[in-house]
Task: structure prediction
Amino acid sequence: MYQICVSGAARGETVEEGRELAKQIGIALAKAGHSLLSGATIGLPNYAAEAYKNHGGKMSVGISPASSRVEHILKYCLPTENYDTIIYSGLHYVGRDSLLITSSDAVISIGGRIGTLHEFTISMESDTPIGFLHGAGGIGDEVTRLMELARPIRRNAFVTFSDSPEKLVKEIEKHLDQIHSKNLELYN
Result:
């Protein structure tokens, strides 16, 4: 079982276009037995968390930018119901994003705007594998162009793309299994 972050837009066009994709990712993660992490926010990550919990997902964790439950709800206006636990980081959005990505074994990104772009760059800098689910527009559909502009990409970077939630989860799973088997060989 891996800790998989679901990243994506909280607001904007990509939320409407990506709603069903986010739900499908939540279902695919639940069926595969992985934990779901998100920024405990509205929009696509919340749709994924809701579908995850509705389909038997075992552990849904939100990492909030707020320092308390009260601040999470009243200041940031963020949801609580689709999470087994929420970590109130007190790190605002920028720090929360770093904690979220580096606490994840991999990231699945859907659509998105500037926050999703931020999470992508953290993934690249921290060598956290990331998969983009196409079909929601936004940053997710532009990231290949951004990667070309940023060449060379980090040597250990793993970035993959798919328009199938199930295939994307399986591809990330396969990559993580390979990493973990190599690490076990090193320690044995």
